[in-house]
Amino acid sequence: MKFSEYMGEWLYGKDGYYATYKNIGKEGDFYTAVSTSKFFGGTIAKHIISLVDEGFLDKDGVVCEIGAHHGYFLADVCEFIYTLRPELLSSLNFVIVERFDDLQEFQKNYFAESFGDVIELTHYKSLRELECESAFFIANEIFDAFPCELYFKGKTARVEGEEIAFDVDNEWVKEKAEKYHKTRGEIAVGYEEFAAEMVSTCKQFEFMSFDYGEMMARPDFSLRIYSKHEVMPFFQDDLNRKELFGKSDITYDVTFEHVKDAFSEVGVEFVEFKAQMSALVEMGILELLEILQANADEKIYKQELEKVKILIMPDFLGERFKMIKFRKE
Ligand SMILES: C[S@@+](CC[C@H](N)C(=O)[O-])C[C@H]1O[C@@H](n2cnc3c(N)ncnc32)[C@H](O)[C@@H]1O
């Protein structure tokens, strides 16, 4: 079987990681930057308001999160829109693209508990179902969750049982590997289709995505497994793949140049690429903290400041996570 099929089953199969991870809860392996502080979502809210003020996003446009897990991030966005520009909460249309029914249900309940009937949340299983005039799309860590092929010195991998054999000639994979200067490494599958789906949703949109990787990810295998708060390289000798299959997260560094090319091919303009810390600071995370400082007591402010520092300090989260932005006008 192709490696992308194996990885697809691992993550999205009936017993795959994402089909069952609703049970993992807040204490599980699953912890991303957006869970660190509500001010991540707050900063995105501030940015959405600036898009409305600029005239790019209609007041009744769509705000859509893709791959929203529990929906906490989009809820943080809504909470800050309520604080900063309450009238937009009822005029904008909030959408989540989520393929799993159980997660859709969880997100619906969380929004109902948090906002009552003030927000009408719409769900789609795929971007193909969405049609609108103008939209803002946001995603966190989705590109590292696309299945990939593995490439090594001219050959593409196949999976037999738990063994990986590099003996397939696959021209598409080879061409991508050469284009991104990889003698070995992962080639993501599905970026082109995803970009084509997004472009057909509406006339005008901005898409912002945060992920772990580089414009040109290093020419090596970065494929790794997260299990019980431990990171294990996929090609580690003693790795029990059978045991870990579907029960742990499997991911790799994103080659943003590939994401960029997929969107360029369907006529979407690349706007910028930068470290998460610079992106959040430029969109106003520090101004939001100042508002908190002026309105909350010292202890609450200091607690939040510590969480925000994790997002914007030039260490693990701030620098190695990147933001990429596209626009179609
Ligand atoms: C690593 S999780 C991130 C979840 C959440 N955004 C967060 O930051 O906690 C990856 C998410 O991307 C979603 N995803 C992956 N490929 C996708 C695709 N082609 N279309 C929509 N969602 C996708 C997965 O279903 C999953 O919810």
Short account of what is shown:
The chain is an alpha/beta fold and 329 residues long. The protein has helices at 3-12, 17-20, 38-54, 72-84, 87-91, 101-115, 171-179, 191-199, 241-244, 256-265, 276-282, 285-295, 298-312, 316-320, and strands at 62-66, 93-97, 121-124, 132-140, 148-152, 155-160, 163-168, 184-188, 202-214, 224-227, 230-233, 249-251, 254-255, 269-275, 321-328.
Itemize the secondary structure elements and their pairings.
Elements lengths: L2 H10 L4 H4 L17 H17 L7 E5 L5 H13 L2 H5 L1 E5 L3 H15 L5 E4 L7 E9 L7 E5 L2 E6 L2 E6 L2 H9 L4 E5 L2 H9 L2 E13 L9 E4 L2 E4 L7 H4 L4 E3 L2 E2 H10 L3 E7 H7 L2 H11 L2 H15 L3 H5 E8 L1
Parallel strand pairs: 1-2, 1-4, 2-3, 4-9, 9-13
Antiparallel strand pairs: 5-6, 5-8, 6-7, 9-15, 10-11, 10-12, 14-15
The protein binds S-adenosylmethionine.
